[in-house]
Amino acid sequence: METVGGFLQELRAVEAEKLVLDMGDLSFVDSAGVGALVQLFVHCRGKSQKFALARLNPQGMAVMQVAGLHKLLPQFPTIGEACQ
Description:
Blueprint: H1 4-12, E1 18-22, H2 31-46, E2 50-54, H3 58-67, E3 75-76, H4 79-83
Parallel strand pairs: 1-2, 2-3
């Protein structure tokens, strides 16, 4: 919760064709994190910037599934696949 604002501010400023978040070292995702990912996805879409998540662990995948975001947020098993 404490870091969501800085996370969003920093990543919204990224100027790239595609924003890929490597989630491999993330040990926990809560509702604030999920909300931040959705906000970031919407922001990217508004800039015509592609967005993807890579290397979600089982807990992260379960959270995305329960939240119904597995259909909205593009997810890939590897960074390479996400960058294609």
